[in-house]
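pinging the channel bc i need a second pair of eyes. not urgent but kinda urgent?? the chain im working w is below, pasted from the shared doc
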Amino acid sequence: MNRKNLILISGLLMFSFGAIAKKKSKRPNILFIMSDDHTSQAIGAYHSRLAPLNPTPTIDRIAEEGIRFENAFCTNSICTPSRACIITGQYSQTNGALDLGSKLPVERQYLPLEMKKLGYQTAIIGKWHLHTKPEAFDYYNVLPGQGRYFDPVLQEKGSNDRVTREEYGKKGYKNEYIEGRIYKGHSSDVITDISLDWLENQRDKSKPFLLLHHFKAPHDLFEFNPKYKDYLEDTFIPEPSSLYYCPDHGSVATRGVNDQLRDTIGTSVGRRNIMRNMGRHMRTDKSLSDLEYKHQAYQEYLKRYLRCVKGVDDNVKRLFDYLEKNDLMDNTIIIYTGDQGFNLGEHDYIDKRWIYEESMRMPFMVRYPKTIKPKTVTDAIINNTDFAPTIIDMAGGKVPSKMQGHSFKSILETGEEPNGWQQETYYRYWMHMAHHCNPAHFGIRTKRYKLILFYGKDYKKRKTGKKGLSAMPKYQTPVAWEFYDLQKDPGEMVNRYDDPKYASVIKDLKVRLKNKRKALNEEDNNYPDLKKIIEDNWNL
């Protein structure tokens, strides 16, 4: 072989190795799919009482081919604060989003800002619900506020589209026009249509992408696509035992002295809550006995909810089909979660907000075959402030020090907790007695135990003169602690706070809770009334 040929072969080999190295170093795409109020009980991979109904075969595939987190939690089980924690990697008192009216300005939209520094093209499509526009993203097309299920209005970055307030369907809207465009169809289909169009026609295909695809479903009032009207129609939906019987759950903070507040605190499936219950929403026959009324309300409630879930799962399949057709599936980190958990009748509760398991627990699954082994399951504790740090780390970036969450990239890749990994998570619900009449509270959750302080007062001073549910936040409810041994009592059926056998455990948890609050800037220095109540009742 002559010198010329050797040089040619050598050059070809160098080019080939360079191409391989470049391919290997190519950063992954990231598809973050989040559904509103999709709780782990309604996902087959979590093996709940609803799993035999097979509600989520496509979503289950993520766990089958990737990793499932058993202990993923939100830090506040309500839409706006949870979403703010996810975008900022910070807890509520740090990021400023304490309740549903909170805003997240562009300078605090840290996740897209950091990802753009890494060369990612960023987009968010669907529900945003943070009351300022997601301008930190390269592209957005989002629902204004809560949005509607049918023929939704969405607001697209750079668009001058407008609809009238009559078209928007909101009487008394402040302005004659609202920014946005009406898209015909059910929101789950529409949001997926827009994501698919962005992936195919609008993104820069020379760059890796971060796409946040956010469904509105299955948020109440569970307006499903009519094509699912027969889904589960003749099926009995398994009911939780605590729907009918849980006498030792809770405390005077959640039940009142001698159960005097049982008809007020925590909206219900049946008639227990006199102001708001699922039977009213489902238009259940008022002539039925209390037991039958609750049963029928629950069955209709779950069928509507699961029909919305079915629509989500079918649309996730559409996303998967596109990724597979375009050879993107295995170079895309696919994450599926909900913005919090949701009560499906447990303890006769509806909605979320509580620190109790069904509300606090988030589904969280990740598929990325290049680094995540299939069928991995972990009980490592993570929460939604950890999501942004992990995404940044997976993309090859450095987690900014202003983020309070931690990357769990190594857990994704090994299935094992690293030395020193967090052994507890903090929770705080601020919106005292709002909408669903949940008292304000905070607490700590370890792998085995949960300790909660219901301090029972709103952080805002409320105007008097309002009636019904709107007047409830101005009322202070009883202060009390609750404690649950989740190993012996996973359904949180018995409050063991006064059980002397757990005195030393509770003492230790209080120390850990106090230290956690201090470390996370959660000490209520801006809310002296709350701080005094908490300090006065710490040793209650």
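so The two ends are 89 Å apart (CA to CA). and The longest helix spans residues 290-325. — does that match what u expected or am i reading it wrong
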